[in-house]
Amino acid sequence: MKSHDGSIAAAAAEAPAAPSSSFKIFHRVVDWITSDRLQLINVTDRINDIVRKSGVREGIVHLQSLHTTTAVFLNEWQDALLADMRAILEDLVRRDANWRHNDPHYSDCDRRNADSHLRGMLMGQALSLQVRNSAVLLGTWQSIILAEFDGPRSRTMSVQVSGL
């Protein structure tokens, strides 16, 4: 390799030492069958199982729903709060509103699920979290929640774990 002054330098002298552990990327696609139009599912244990099986001790887990009418997010898994989440989602995005997506003059979609798409957009379909000691790093009350907005349906999430 030539340096900026034209001399030839040894490439080995410039290469960093190889780490003792190798970087890993582990991928799984997981499925759920939902039973309600608006349903919240605690997926924390299943994601932690995937992280443990990945062999990654320190890194990142990236979760991505493969649907526009679902969401994945963090929150507390507590019955009263889950009821409040359902209520606010139903209040913020009314199913019976006059959405263009549901109107055959504007859209070819026959599912009448504009509310589901809008809720998914507001909540988001992806989440990246830290992996520490072969587990998802979560706060005391945090759970990973998959939200179904257009069920019942078969749902798929891509889970990728990367790190050392």
What does this structure look like?
With 164 residues, the chain is α+β, with helices and mostly antiparallel strands. It has a single domain (21-163), classed as Sandwich (Jelly Rolls), CATH 2.60.120. Helices cover 24% and strands 33% of the residues. The protein contains 4 helices and 8 strands, in the order αββαββααββββ. The strands form 2 sheets. The chain has a 5-stranded antiparallel β-sheet, covered by helices on one side. A 3-stranded antiparallel β-sheet has the order 2-7-4, with helices on both faces. A hairpin with a 2-residue loop joins strand 5 (126-132) and strand 6. The radius of gyration is 22 Å and the shape is elongated. The model is unreliable at 1-13 (pLDDT under 50).
Describe the protein's topology:
Elements: H1 11-14, E1 24-33, E2 39-42, H2 44-54, E3 59-65, E4 70-76, H3 79-92, H4 114-123, E5 126-132, E6 135-136, E7 142-148, E8 154-163
